[in-house]
Amino acid sequence: MKKSLVVSKVIKLKQGSFLEKSIKRTLLGMACGYFNMGVAYAISPSAVVTSGEMVNEATLSSVDEDAAAAVPLVKSSDAAVPLHAKVAAGSGSADVRVDQKSFPPEFFALLQQGVDIPFLLRTPTGVEEAGRAKIRYAGSFLTLDSLSLNKSKLSLDYLALFKAQYGKPLRASSCEHSPMVAAMASTAENNPAEQALAAPAADDLGMCFDVMTFELIASLPKEAFDTAARSRVLTLPESTEQHLSSVLNYNMSMMKTDGRDADAYLHAQSTTSFGSSYLYLDADARTQQNGSIYEARLTRDFEGFNVSAGYLSLWAMNNLGSLSFTRGGKFVGVTAGNNGQSEKSDASLSQKPIFVFMPASGQVSIYRDGKLLNVQQLAIGNQEIDTRPLPVGSYTVRLDVVVNGQVVSSKQESVYKMSSGGKDKQIQMFAGRYQDSGDGRLTHLVGVSGRMSTPWVDLASSLYSYGSLTVIEPSFQKSFSYGSINGQLGLASDRSYSSNISANLNLGPASFWTMLERSGSGHAVDSYRTDRRYISVGATLDLQGPLTLEKTSSLTSNFSYDQISGSHDSRLDWSQGLYSNRWVDLRLNLGKSWQSREDGSSKQSLYATVNMNFSFGSGGVDYSRSIDSENMGIHGAWTPTTVNGLDYLGAAVSRSRSLASNESSTNLDLRANGANRIFAWDATVGKNSSADSLSMSGNVSGSLAGNGDGMGWASQRSDAGVIVKIDDDARGQLDLYLHGRSSPLESTSSFVALPAFGAAPISVQSSAKSPENYDIQNGEKALVLYPGNVATLKPRLRRQVTVFGVLTENGIPKVGVRLHNHIGSTITAADGAFAVDVDTDHPNVSYKVAANNTCQIDFDLSAAKGAMWVNEVSCAKPTIR
Fold first, then answer.
1. This prediction's pTM
2. Which architecture does CATH list for 348-417?
3. Residue 194 pLDDT more than 60?
4. Nearest to 815 by CA among 836, 829, 835, 834
């Protein structure tokens, strides 16, 4: 008789397991098999169950022509069985035998292609999924084909051990000893033939393929997990725009007063690039005086190394260290260093990675001085703590590893987060000819500057020479829990010196700050230092908390003293909240100041203002009074949200009066600003009664970009961007998305300003405000932009309309008819209703009416916006409404 397999054993399919998903999705309705100790189980369609369901209680057995008695099939759970397959003699071409057991061949085809199964790791609390594995029936054995982990990482040694198991017999058993399996395990202990098939286990991996759940389970030691840290240095790859392009940022201003000529000003910054190299120009032009060129340099900034040559601004050499002993001027030369913006350090992370070992998925609680700072959820393995949420500074934290609510380990670690961004070590060298802005003398300027960050303090220094002077200027910055201290020193070869130390302290509701400055002149002609002794101290006190006030209240004081001149200034300010609700906020401000000068003169002034902020804008009443003058005014502003191009509109009226002569004047000021897709603007109009004059001023700013594909305008100022070219009828219907932020495309050629030294994917999508529906192709691009780079994006657009209607023939609905066009298809419902997307360039659908005949229905979609109802349509006489 022919051998067959029947299911008569309790089977519970694990939720989410391979077997449950495979039976439901792939093998439903046909005989299925899976391996256990070289035995194939055939599962009838009636045995297909969902998670949590059970089949009837019985015994898994094999029925053979030579043995009428049932033979238990569950073998020793420790056996590792190679699976030898061959066609079963006399059983038909579709049957496959494995160690004298037969089952349908469909499952072998699935295994020969490779099956994706869960990869689980044993933990002290059980097992948990850590990734996916792929098993394959190759040759005569069930083998491991590939392995990938989700959130945990394995060391190279253990990855090599896993790869050594690829293509080798996979140890197969029932990995979890349930009471049912344990009771039946004694069968294999007395079966030498089955024991002879066992292959040695990979002890270093502790890996087992569970044939009952189709899961790969491993027991790994702590050493198996890698400790790969997040990258602290982000290096920008080569630019994606290997073509000539340019960005021009501009700012135009104009002032006009009655009786005077207009004064106009234009400031422009141009960046022209090819890849990661660019030419930068910075200049201005004025109507009342000569224009100036501030910079004209050629720069290459790649992989963190920056080289610039040409006409450079002295401010460019102040990036790493100060050059305060120079008076400014013109510098022509070269500068080079590793302070390039193409390579950046992630200052949000601790410079020293912090790892914890998670024996199972759980959480880590981070404490500082006994206070909880942060809680993070981590997967099994050696995991790096995310130090981005932790405060800046150098301090010690305690890490508690919590699994299932229990603290399983605890340790101390040091956190060091730089107070300033950038690399922890930077250096810059410069050399060239320098023209002093004071006396116009031409001399050399050669020097080096650098910055270094340590866990204790951030240091910077400059060493340079010009004229007859050699100068060194070191500085430091130290941040701690309750404040910071900064210091900058300078010493020149002619004994000129300077020192500046500032500090601030924050103690809950009170904060204090101070600054000490001291400098002295030398004897060299290049020195322009003057003797100075200056001190300034101040404090701010939040009165609301300590006095338990209902409204906000704060007191601020400041005192400064010039020791050489003997002059001092003092000030006391009080701000008090009076009233607030959802529509208005009312605040009172009072203050008094005292001034004393070296000639013995003194002056006092007093002011009082009441300010109101409304939900629709702002307004207020101001009053101030000093010994010899008095001022009173009222102001109001509107911030519209529905007027395109207008962001602010405000007006102010004030009256000033002299207490000595009783003379007075009235001032009226109007101001407005806004932005459109081309430029941003600001305008002010003022009128003074005493001068009887009208003054006006205006400002326009924006950017213009171009490349070989065209030009575009933008109201934002930027050094790079992308030109998006769309059809005329799609203007205002599409948005460009970057990092979740959208920019409307309101022109056929729109320039969208993007940050330079950045990499980001962009995409064109239909606007949420648009009723139109577009199928967009070639609308995505991954960009790497350097200064001056202008990319081009030309999406192909196809406007679609979803057409709803009913297909009829002689007034009778046609059921089950497939309507199709070149972008999609649909089948009519029981009442003939249909819904189908139609391209407006091809506004029709077709369907077969006979073997070789097709009927086409045309639609008038000229007035359609996104969707359209066409009522009843038919092949003979379409009806469109």
1. 0.70
2. Sandwich (2.60)
3. no
4. 829
